[in-house]
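In the previous chapter we treated chains in isolation. Here, by contrast, the input contains two separate entities that must be folded as one system, with a combined length of 392 residues.
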Amino acid sequence: MAGEQPNGRDDILDSAVRLFNERGYYGTSTRDIAKGAEMTAASIYHHFASKQEILQSIMGRALQGALSMTRAAVIRAGGTPDGQLRALMRAWVVFHATHRRDAVVGATELRSVEGPGRDRVVALRDEQEALFRDVVLRGVEESVFATGFPYEATRSIISAGQSICMWWRDDGPMSVDELADRYEAIALAIVEYHPA
Amino acid sequence: MAGEQPNGRDDILDSAVRLFNERGYYGTSTRDIAKGAEMTAASIYHHFASKQEILQSIMGRALQGALSMTRAAVIRAGGTPDGQLRALMRAWVVFHATHRRDAVVGATELRSVEGPGRDRVVALRDEQEALFRDVVLRGVEESVFATGFPYEATRSIISAGQSICMWWRDDGPMSVDELADRYEAIALAIVEYHPA
């Protein structure tokens, strides 16, 4: 593509994500990121003002990516709470299995996000939790979900899906599709969905 | 107590846990740990050979602590799978709410454990997972738990409880006891326990 550089923004982000997974944000230097992207530390600063800005780009990509996928899934799922929860959990699981490294940074490096960018990251995380919670609460209101603890149920569903990024391996025996089927069933069990 | 030093082993571990929570293992220096414990870096080496040894002590304390509490709970719970799962989840939740900082290190710093000590840490983690899995599998065998996916159910129960260390605040409106009640209900829902 015209204007595309061989070692650009995406190479920097890929190198940073890999290193943040291995050693965390504070354990990674801008020099390490440059080395991993096969460029000089100076040329990193053509793209990002600081290591903190790189982290915020990755966090934004991870949280915004998951939110977009899950929101779109809910909207396309039709009207029933159980259909919406299935679609939501499916998208959440697929995201965490297919964007593992981004997801690990998203799940572990909130503590490292500083300054005004922090508000944006926290807002995205809260938005994601609200999407799950609204689907669960509506199911409870309509007596489709019998759980007495919708807030804890919501958190349990979110963390069950999120933890997939910590152990999922692409070369394992199960497909992402099969994994998503199973976690759909788990999510419905958590809210105590009993088909009428 | 005779022989107890004002700034000893426990102060070092407390300082290290606090810093590992804030900045991660790689982002924390032995000098930082010493400063937090109000001692010199040199005197740290009276107690620990390296920062890695400090990490392994904390990981061991966290994983061994959780394993001891949950094993004891299962043994005292009596014979039914649902009674065992209730006791197990209760102990797991109480541990993660009352040992938050240790638990965060235990959950996030496995990547940083190096050398032969790694085998011990991995063995403890696997032992913990096996305890949950055995209780769930036995419930399924005895048709007390109806889940079709006992492995994913096990993982979901573990991560639901584990994630409590990321958000629990001691000064919140809920007691640890009430929290444990709710997560007991969630764990039974995940395995699809239906009283006969």
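The mean pLDDT of chain A is 94. The CA atoms of residues 40 and 80 of chain A lie 53 Å apart. Compare these points with the single-chain example from earlier in the chapter.
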